[in-house]
């Protein structure tokens, strides 16, 4: 089931926000980030938002996902950038306020049929991918 991620706001006084799920919950969770934008009161400065998570070796990594500036790029669409909780969003530079929004998907393991997914051939999986579109200028 999909739930709206109410989002969070990063500011000079609240530089980070962690999205996590109950450790005893055996469902699979995906957090998808849709948009990052400057909100009312932002200064014309670079606001860098980082995502802090864990890689495949369970090591913590920080990756910048947005560099917003009021005069040139106040909003960035991240096209449902998928993350595995727990994940922390941090304002690495700037004073914000920066608002992040998206959705949270919960897949209950008893509902998911992983065996069916394994039966798909690689060709079928490739056919389902959307075509790569050139960047809009």
UniProtKB/TrEMBL annotation:
<dbReference type="GO" id="GO:0003682">
    <property type="term" value="F:chromatin binding"/>
</dbReference>
<feature type="domain" description="Nucleoplasmin core">
    <location>
        <begin position="7"/>
        <end position="105"/>
    </location>
</feature>
<dbReference type="Pfam" id="PF03066">
    <property type="entry name" value="Nucleoplasmin"/>
</dbReference>
<dbReference type="GO" id="GO:0005737">
    <property type="term" value="C:cytoplasm"/>
</dbReference>
<comment type="subunit">
    <text>Interacts with NPM (via N-terminus). Forms a pentamer with NPM at a ratio 4:1 (NPM3/NPM). Two pentamers form a decamer.</text>
</comment>
<comment type="function">
    <text>Plays a role in the regulation of diverse cellular processes such as ribosome biogenesis, chromatin remodeling or protein chaperoning. Modulates the histone chaperone function and the RNA-binding activity of nucleolar phosphoprotein B23/NPM. Efficiently mediates chromatin remodeling when included in a pentamer containing NPM3 and NPM.</text>
</comment>
<dbReference type="InterPro" id="IPR036824">
    <property type="entry name" value="Nucleoplasmin_core_dom_sf"/>
</dbReference>
<feature type="region of interest" description="Disordered">
    <location>
        <begin position="111"/>
        <end position="137"/>
    </location>
</feature>
<dbReference type="GO" id="GO:0042393">
    <property type="term" value="F:histone binding"/>
</dbReference>
<dbReference type="InterPro" id="IPR024057">
    <property type="entry name" value="Nucleoplasmin_core_dom"/>
</dbReference>
<dbReference type="GO" id="GO:0006338">
    <property type="term" value="P:chromatin remodeling"/>
</dbReference>
<dbReference type="InterPro" id="IPR004301">
    <property type="entry name" value="Nucleoplasmin"/>
</dbReference>
<protein>
    <recommendedName>
        <fullName>Nucleoplasmin-3</fullName>
    </recommendedName>
</protein>
<keyword id="KW-0143">Chaperone</keyword>
<comment type="similarity">
    <text>Belongs to the nucleoplasmin family.</text>
</comment>
<keyword id="KW-0007">Acetylation</keyword>
<feature type="compositionally biased region" description="Acidic residues">
    <location>
        <begin position="113"/>
        <end position="129"/>
    </location>
</feature>
<dbReference type="GO" id="GO:0003723">
    <property type="term" value="F:RNA binding"/>
</dbReference>
<keyword id="KW-0597">Phosphoprotein</keyword>
<keyword id="KW-0539">Nucleus</keyword>
<dbReference type="GO" id="GO:0005654">
    <property type="term" value="C:nucleoplasm"/>
</dbReference>
<keyword id="KW-0488">Methylation</keyword>
<dbReference type="GO" id="GO:0005730">
    <property type="term" value="C:nucleolus"/>
</dbReference>
């Amino acid at each position: 089931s999909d739930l709206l991620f109410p989002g969070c706001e990063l500011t000079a006084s609240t530089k980070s926000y962690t999205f996590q799920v109950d450790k005893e919950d055996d469902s699979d969770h995906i957090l998808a980030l849709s948009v990052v934008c400057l909100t009312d009161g932002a200064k014309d400065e670079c606001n860098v938002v980082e995502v802090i998570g864990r890689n495949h070796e369970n090591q913590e990594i920080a990756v910048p996902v947005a560099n917003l500036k009021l005069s040139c790029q106040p909003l960035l669409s991240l096209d449902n950038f998928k993350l595995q909780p727990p994940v922390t969003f941090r304002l690495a530079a700037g004073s914000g306020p920066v608002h992040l929004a998206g959705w949270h998907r919960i897949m209950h393991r008893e509902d998911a049929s992983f065996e069916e997914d394994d039966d798909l051939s690689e060709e079928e999986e490739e056919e389902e991918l959307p075509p790569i579109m050139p960047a809009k200028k």
